[in-house]
Amino acid sequence: MKPLNNNTVRKGYLRFSGFLIICVAVSVFCFYSYMKTASTEVKMIMAKTVEYDNIYSAELNMVVAVDSIYQYMSLMNSSPKINDLLLQSVVSNRKMQLQNQINALDEKDFLLYKKLAGNINVFLGVKDSIRLAEKEESIVREDLMRCVKENREISRKLKVGGITYERK
Question: Cβ of 99: how many Cβ atoms within 10 Å?
Fold first, then answer.
């Protein structure tokens, strides 16, 4: 004894089963696609992370290099015991090493350091000018002190000898 709508019920079950299989297949395909995309994105993120870590470590190295150059530059003209010419040579060598590091890497990541390295020559020129001006000032001061001393001695000799010397 079969029910009268046996064909309709069977067709309904088959239709439901077909839609369920299609739905499960689409769901499995979507999940597979999602996992594949996610793994690809993770690989790309890891590659970028390595790249950014390399840039970051290079940037830290440049920070140390610029700091050491700044420390050496701040020592210039600070004490007469320090050889400024030797210190200027050290700063120039460090600057050249910094420029070589910058040139070896991507320029767009290190624009600030490139500009700083370019301006170090200006700083060195100013420091050298200050050093030369201080030397010249000390020489002129010594000459002035010598002239004042000689003037006093001559004035004393002239007064002792009875001859007066009038200043104009």
Answer: 15
* pTM of the full structure: 0.59
pLDDT digits (tens, 9 = 90+) for 31-40: 999 999 999 9
* Alpha-carbon distances of 86 from 99, 102, 137, 164, rounded to whole Å: 20, 24, 22, 53
Q: Residue 144 domain-assigned?
A: no
**Quick one: which of 68, 65, 130 has its CA closest to 98?**
65
What is the span of the domain harbouring residue 66?
Answer: 9-130
pLDDT digits (tens, 9 = 90+) for 98-150: 888 888 887 787 888 888 888 888 888 888 888 888 889 999 999 999 999 99
Q: How many domains does the chain have?
A: 1
Question: Is residue 139 in a domain?
Answer: no
Q: Are 90 and 120 in contact (CB under 8 A)?
A: no
155 in a structural domain: no
Q: Which residues contact 98 (CB under 8 A, 6 or more apart)?
A: 62, 65, 66, 69, 113, 117
